[in-house]
Design a protein that fits this description.
By secondary structure, this protein is mainly β. It is built from 4 helices and 12 strands. The chain has one domain: Electron Transport, Fmn-binding Protein, Chain A (Pnp Oxidase, Chain A). It is globular. The two termini are 34 Å apart. Bound molecules: flavin mononucleotide.
Length: 192
């Protein structure tokens, strides 16, 4: 089949739909939606995120030097989209609008979103100027998981987590079926 060149693009499918929460005052926090993010190293665990410099969140992220990354369930698409459409400069209490409960983190000042079954406490390790935004390399200091998403061995089960997924064609999805087991299925092609 012929290939059509599309030029430089951000068309990587799928992407995570994440909620970055940052403390804005002693008892309040702002939440923004982030999809340009991912795990980039394992030891120590690190994530990289691109965050626009003109967002309401950005000066708070800069002054705190840390934030939480919260993984929403697939049934949370409406409030997740809201946090990506409406700035904290127009709604300074997005968590209340979304009817979310904020829980204290253990290592940083920014809170966790209770309704998200998986949460990461992140500290900024490095920042790169990246056009209209900053590319933050963050260390994951702590991971919080609802017990309901853990399997019998205490590991996070993707099916129970049921994360919301974003695709760059502008849709939210949920996970589909398991296809094969990773680090295992490929053994079928190993030469003896
Ligand atoms: C699905 C989705 C993904 C988004 N991903 C990002 C992202 O990766 N980085 C970013 O800076 N903004 C992203 N945005 C836009 C911000 O979430 C949006 O501008 C938000 O209103 C910023 O909030 P704030 O001004 O309260 O900080 C995304 C929005 C949506 C709907």
């Amino acid at each position: 089949m012929a290939k059509k060149p599309l030029g430089p693009s951000t068309s990587l499918f799928p992407m995570p739909a994440l909620l970055v929460a940052v403390k804005t005052a002693p008892q309040s926090a702002n939440v923004m939606t982030v999809a340009w993010a991912g795990i980039v190293s394992g030891d120590p665990p690190r994530m990289a995120l691109e965050i626009g410099r003109n967002h309401y969140s950005t000066p708070f992220i800069e002054s705190e030097g840390s934030f939480t990354v919260n993984v929403p369930r697939s049934d949370m698409a409406v409030p997740v989209d809201y946090c990506g459409l409406v700035s904290g400069s127009h709604d300074p209490d997005k968590p209340a609008t979304c009817r979310w409960t904020l829980l204290p983190s253990t290592r940083i000042a920014s809170p966790l979103i209770a309704e998200c079954p998986l949460n990461f406490e992140c500290r900024i390790e490095r920042k790169v100027e990246a056009g209209a935004g900053y590319f933050y390399l963050v260390e994951i200091l702590e991971t919080h998981a609802d017990e309901a998403i853990l399997d019998g061995e205490g590991k996070i089960d993707a099916g129970r987590l049921d994360p919301l997924i974003f695709t760059p064609d502008g849709w939210y999805y949920r996970l589909g079926e398991r296809v094969e087991q990773a680090f295992s299925a490929g053994k079928a092609l190993r030469r003896a």
